[in-house]
Each structure stands twice: as structure tokens, then as C-alpha cells.
Design brief:
The complex is a heterodimer. Chain A has 20 helices and 2 strands. By secondary structure, chain A is mostly helical. The chains are: A mainly alpha, B mainly alpha.
């Protein structure tokens, strides 16, 4: 039952936000709703980690499609976590621009719808219905990407919508072929993830492989896998920072989750090559992103490219196979999610204090805005994978797993790319924070006296988001460990 | 139903899907935005017709539902939504700067259609004989031609129609090979199509306000600048 409430909460919040009340009403409702969602999701995850199965408990029609296992519960909690911190961050961040009440309401309406569509992804177990909510995430977030209504933001939103929907069209065909494969197998199971795994050995290999490739390419577009990634740095840099945190931190992972659902299906079928595809596409993504990181000129794009890199790492880890790498991949999803959302909060703090996104215009930030600089350095180190932070631990366990699998080439390449990305990220951040200001530099960075202007809610969100980044670097609590183990097990059945 | 009727229905379906492919070609070639929209509406009606024919042929009532959804949503609601959301300029614009000229575009489209046939063949061999209609290869062709339309167009409306053609293509194949999909899903997919039109209409209006034209292809400011990075290195 609590799953239904999780889905209903953002919808109720959407309706409540529509009421034309005070400015604080919309943000307050959103924060409360997302907090409640988070608590319920943690409860669901707790039950799942303890070995219970969680369904909707209602035996009517499409509600049978709702089922949560370890993998879905993990994604569910992460979505709810970022939705909550981003909602808290939004309170102060969106109040900053002196928006008209109507525009602010529009923001929160889209925000809640976006959160709803994401929460529905892991919860639904029927593939075509998952496709529908994936498409909804694009549509609900499109107006959030274009929210600032500048030329660049509109360009980003347009590219985002067109490319994501192109991918969605291809994926739709993939899901229909998958359905045909299910029917051709003669299986009487319901068309769900579970039913697919059971039917996989009898499916005609051509249909299954075609479906897998179509879905990998189609949804891979929305995950930001190279070479379908071109929209990602645009959209993830032009949206307001809390939205970037959602887009980059968890939306990409939750779409990747849908692709990951197909891996056990492919394994159940005789000689499928899902792993090879995953490693190849993953490594291409990591490598390309690592080199592109060197030449970015916008620090939000820097973090966006790092998302491409991380999606590649997760996919490679899944491709390296076996439960060890699977565990590492799940750990990487968690650490990427908490760290990347923190990074975009930090980027938002920098943006509030210097009003520019250009890296070259920002030098010596540490003197101008110590708090934002501290957050940026911490975020940069964390996302690049410096010890002892969350990403380091998860990348380390992936590399270790790769070596124990004797996949030396793939693991070696992965390690090299990660190191290049590390230097790429730190190079830019180092210059921004500690670099000497050039004389006659860009005139658009005035001496703003606003170290103190970072709103309270933004600071709160930064602190809340930083806690898991720190803790998960050296300690994984037992319930989370159980959940990760179950999630990894769901990858290899 | 006897064999002659079945034969007739099969032939009619081949005719309808053939016309479907023709409309996809027309959308690639048509300059006038309003014409593109009309071709798309014709295409959706052909999709509905194919659904009805397959429904008759295999006595599957739920395909009538699919046809009905298509008849209501695309010819009626899509133009209405476009009128409500986007500036009227989207209709009147003729494209002067298309990435490719029409003969080249049509040649590539032809190559894509042939490719679609060969992509469809192995899929058809894998399904049961009753699913082996012309819908799958032509559906794939629709998918490819829609994607091709998106890559060569610079105007908002043809881009949007390109996306919807992709969806139509996927659907045309779907009503054949995934015939027993739940009605609820089909309805939801159709609704999604309408939301696409709404969101893109709103975006188009915002673009037109911002840059004074609906030629969204002119938006091309966001990219990396390798030169800048290396320049910084040398001046340091």
C-alpha cells in the first residue's frame, strides 16, 4: 500500500501547488511531500532489504504491475533522496530570482510531476508502462530545462526533447519487439520483468537481441551514452541547479535501471552478448567523456560530462559481470547519485555568488565566496573519486572486481579514463577556486559582496547532501549493504 | 472468414501500408509546414485503417480501439493543440535552408526504406506466420524516415512531425507483431503523443518569442571550444 502512497504524494503535491497562495506555499508543500516520500521509500527499502517482497497488495488490473525488489527499492530511495534535497535547495535558490508567483508555481508543478514520473519507473514492472513513464520524465522536465527562458536554455530544452524522444521512439519499437518475442516463446506469463526472465530461454534469439539493442540505443540516448550524449551537457547545464541535481544525479541512473533490467533476461537466453555491448558502449562513454572534460568552458557542463563518464562506468561494471562487479555497479549508482546532486548544489551556490557559468571568468573564487568554493572543491574531489569519499570506494570495488574477473584490458582502460577524468575535473576547479585573477580579464565578474547571500535552505541542502558522500566513503551500513547485495542479485538471475 | 476475404483483407492492408510509406516520403520532401501536418494526419488515418483491417482479419476487437484512438487524437486533437500552444508562424513558414535538397533527401529516404526491408526480414522469420504482414518492414521504414526528417529539418513543426512519424512507425509494426498489447497501454502511448505536441508547442512559442523565428535549427550556441582551452594553456 505504501508504494501507492509514494506515487500519489507527488501528484497530490502537484494539485496543491496549483493553488494560488503565498510564495512559500508551493515550496513548502513540495518539501513536505518529498520528505514524506523519502520516509516511505526508506521504509519500503527496509522491508525489501530484510527479504520481504513488496507489492501493491491490491488485486485490481494494472496494480498487478507494481512490484518492488532490491534493485527497484534502491533506485526508489535514491530518487526520493535527491527529490528531497533538491526541494530544500529550491526553496532558497528559486526565491533568489524574484520570480513572479505564477512562474514559481509552474516550476513546482513541473518539479512534482517530474518526481512522480521518476518514482514510477522503478515501481512499475510492466515494460511498456515503464516506457510510458520514461517518456513522461522527458516531457515533465522539458519545461524545467527551459525554465530560465534564455536562448541557451531554449536550445538545450529543444535538443533534449527532440533527441530523448527520438530515442524513445526507437525504444518503443524495442519494447514492442520484446512483447512479440514473449508471445513467440509461447509463455503464458504476464509481460513483466519477472515473466520475461522466465520466458527468455524459449524466445527466438533474433527478436530478443533486436529488442535489446533497440532499447539499449533508444534509452541509452536518455542515459547519455556516447555517441547519443550530445544533448546531455546542454540540458544538464542550462536547467536551474536543483533541477540539474535531479537530472544528472538520478534521472540518468533511473533510465539506466530500465536497461539493466534486461540483463538478467539476456543472460537467461542462450548465447546473448549483452555484456559485450555494455562494456564496449560503457568504455566509449567513459573515454569520450574523460577527454571532453578537459575542454569544457562552463563548470556546470563539467559536472554534466562527469555524469556521462559515470553512466559509462556503471554500464561497464555491469558488463564486467558476476556478482562482485554487479555490487560495485550498484554502489556506484548510489555514490554517483549522492555526489552528483551535491556537485550541482555547489555549482548553484557558485552561480548565485558570481552570476556566470564560464570557467575562465572565475578566478580566485576562494577569496570571493569561501563557502561556495569549499563546496565546489569538496564536490569536485568527491565526484572525481578522491579517497576517502563515496565515489572512490565504489570505483575501487569495480576495478577490483574487474581484475578478479581477469578482464585486464577493460579494467585497465577504465582505470586510465578515470584518472584522466580526475585530472580534467580538478584542473578546472583548481583554477576557478585558487587561480590568480588575470588583469584585464572578463569584465563580467564584478566584485560582488555576497559570501553571505547563500540562502539558509541552500546551505542546509548542501550539508544534508554532503553527509552520505562522506560516510559512504568508508562505511556502508548493514541495511544498505543488504539492499545493494539484493540489487546486484537482481542483475544476474 | 473464408480464404477470399482474408486474401482481400491482406491485399488491402498491403495497399494501406504502402500508402503509409508514401506519406512518410512526402513528409521528408514537403517544404510547406502545413502540408507536412496534413500528410501526417493522412498517415495517422492510414495507420488506423491498417489497424481496422488487421482487426477484421484476425478478429481482434482491441485493434478497433487502437484505430479509434488514432482517429480521434491525431487528426483532431493534434492540430487543435498546435493552434492553442504555438504561434501561427509554424504553419506558414516555408523552409528555405534545409540541410539537404529534396532530390538528395529523397534518395537517402529511399535507401533507408530498402534498409528497413532488410532489417525487417529476420524479425519476420522469427515470428509465427500470422504476424508476417507488410507492417513490420514499413513500420521500421517509418521509424527511420521519421528520424531522418528530424536530422535534416530546421523548422519546429516538421521536427515535431518527424517525432510523431517515428511513433506512428513503431505503432504500425506494433499492431502487427504486438497485437495483444493491453488497451490501457495503447491509450497511454497515444496520450503521451499528445503531451509531446503540447510541450513542443509551448517550447516553440518560447523560442519564437526569444529569437523571433520558429527555425529552431538556428539555435546552435552550446558546444565545447577546444581552442579556448589550449589558448589558456599557452598564455599561462
Amino acid at each position: 500500500m505504501s508504494i501507492l502512497i509514494i506515487l500519489l504524494l507527488p501528484l497530490i503535491a502537484t494539485l496543491l501547488v496549483c493553488l494560488p497562495l503565498k510564495k512559500t506555499w508551493a515550496s513548502g508543500v513540495t518539501v513536505v511531500a518529498s520528505l514524506a516520500t523519502l520516509m516511505l521509500s526508506v521504509r519500503v527499502a527496509w522491508l525489501v532489504a530484510a527479504g520481504n517482497s513488496v507489492t501493491a497488495d491490491l488485486n485490481i488490473g494494472w496494480l498487478n504491475w507494481i512490484a518492488v525488489d532490491g534493485l527497484s527499492a534502491l533506485i526508489l530511495v535514491l530518487i526520493a533522496f535527491v527529490a528531497t534535497t533538491a526541494a530544500i535547495y529550491s526553496v532558497g535558490y528559486m526565491a533568489h530570482g524574484n520570480l513572479k508567483p505564477g512562474k514559481l508555481r509552474l516550476y513546482y508543478i513541473n518539479y512534482n510531476l517530474f518526481v512522480f514520473s521518476m518514482l514510477a519507473i522503478p515501481v512499475l514492472a510492466e515494460p511498456t508502462s515503464v516506457w510510458i513513464v520514461v517518456e513522461l520524465t522527458t516531457l515533465a522536465s522539458a519545461l524545467l530545462v527551459s525554465f530560465e527562458n534564455t536562448r541557451e536554455a531554449l536550445e538545450a530544452a529543444w535538443k533534449y526533447v527532440v533527441l530523448s524522444l527520438m530515442g524513445a521512439g526507437i525504444a518503443l519499437f524495442g519494447f514492442l519487439v520484446l512483447f512479440a518475442a514473449m508471445q513467440a516463446s509461447g509463455s503464458t506469463n504476464a509481460y513483466t520483468w519477472r515473466g520475461l526472465i522466465d520466458a527468455a530461454p524459449m524466445m527466438p534469439p533474433v527478436l530478443l537481441q533486436t529488442a535489446f539493442l533497440l532499447i539499449l540505443i533508444g534509452l541509452g540516448t536518455k542515459v547519455g551514452l556516447v555517441p547519443m550524449h550530445t544533448w546531455l551537457p546542454d540540458a544538464h547545464s542550462q536547467a536551474p541547479s536543483p533541477v540539474c541535481a535531479l537530472l544528472s544525479g538520478i534521472e540518468t541512473s533511473s533510465i539506466l535501471y530500465v536497461i539493466l533490467r534486461l540483463f538478467p533476461v539476456m543472460q537467461a537466453a542462450p548465447n546473448s552478448h549483452a555484456e559485450t555491448w555494455a562494456v564496449v558502449l560503457g568504455l566509449i562513454s567513459v573515454g569520450t567523456a574523460a577527454f571532453l572534460l578537459l575542454q569544457v568552458k562552463d563548470y556546470k557542463r563539467l559536472f554534466a560530462f562527469s555524469t556521462v563518464e559515470h553512466m559509462g562506468i556503471i554500464l561497464t561494471a555491469v558488463g564486467l559481470g558476476a556478482s562482485v562487479a554487479g555490487y560495485g555497479a550498484m554502489q556506484q549508482i548510489v555514490s554517483h547519485c549522492v555526489t552528483k546532486s551535491f556537485c550541482f548544489f555547489a555549482a548553484g551556490a557558485v552561480l548565485l555568488s558570481v552570476k556566470t557559468r564560464r570557467i575562465v571568468s572565475i578566478r580566485g573564487l576562494v577569496r570571493q565566496s569561501p563557502l561556495a568554493s569549499a563546496a565546489l572543491v569538496f564536490g569536485g574531489l568527491a565526484i572525481a573519486g578522491a579517497p576517502p569519499l563515496a565515489v572512490f570506494l565504489s570505483e575501487f570495488s569495480i576495478l577490483k572486481a574487474g581484475l578478479t574477473q581477469k578482464e585486464y584490458l577493460a579494467t585497465g582502460l577504465l582505470a586510465v579514463f578515470i584518472v584522466i577524468a580526475f585530472f580534467g575535473i580538478m584542473l578546472h576547479i583548481n583554477r576557478m577556486v585558487f587561480g590568480a585573477r588575470e588583469t584585464g580579464g572578463d569584465a563580467s565578474s564584478p566584485q560582488s559582496d555576497n559570501a553571505s547571500t547563500l540562502p539558509f535552505s541552500c546551505r542546509l541542502a548542501l550539508i544534508v547532501a554532503a553527509v552520505p558522500v562522506l560516510i559512504l566513503g568508508f562505511y556502508i551500513p548493514q541495511p544498505l549493504h543488504d539492499l545493494l547485495t539484493q540489487a546486484a542479485a537482481a542483475l544476474t538471475q | 472468414m473464408n480464404d477470399t476475404t482474408n486474401q482481400l483483407l491482406d491485399n488491402l492492408n498491403s495497399l494501406v501500408t504502402g500508402l503509409f510509406l508514401l506519406t512518410a516520403f512526402g513528409i521528408v520532401a514537403m517544404r510547406q509546414a502545413r502540408g507536412v501536418l496534413h500528410l501526417f494526419i493522412a498517415q495517422s488515418l492510414l495507420l488506423a485503417a491498417s489497424a481496422v483491417l488487421l482487426g477484421l482479419r484476425f478478429t481482434s476487437e482491441h485493434l478497433y480501439g487502437v484505430a479509434l484512438v488514432n482517429i480521434i487524437s491525431k487528426p483532431i486533437i493534434v492540430p487543435w493543440l498546435l493552434r492553442k500552444t504555438s504561434p501561427s508562424e509554424v504553419y506558414t513558414r516555408r523552409e528555405v535552408t534545409q540541410a539537404l535538397n529534396i532530390p538528395t533527401a529523397l534518395l537517402i529516404a529511399l535507401a533507408l526504406a530498402i534498409l528497413a526491408y532488410f532489417l525487417g526480414l529476420p524479425l519476420l522469420k522469427a515470428v509465427a506466420p500470422e504476424f508476417r504482414g507488410p507492417n513490420v518492414p514499413i513500420g521500421i521504414a517509418g521509424l527511420l524516415l521519421g528520424a531522418f526528417t528530424i536530422t535534416v529539418r530546421r523548422e519546429a513543426l516538421p521536427l515535431l512531425i518527424g517525432l510523431l512519424v517515428m511513433e506512428n512507425g513503431a505503432f504500425l509494426a506494433g499492431i502487427d507483431i504486438a497485437r495483444n498489447l493491453k488497451m490501457l497501454i495503447e491509450l497511454a502511448i497515444a496520450t503521451d503523443g499528445l503531451i509531446i505536441v503540447f510541450i513542443m508547442g509551448v517550447l516553440t512559442r518560447a523560442v519564437q518569442k526569444q529569437i523571433g523565428t520558429t527555425a529552431v535549427g538556428e539555435l546552435a550556441a552550446l558546444k565545447e571550444a577546444p581552442a579556448e582551452f589550449f589558448k589558456k594553456e599557452t598564455t599561462k
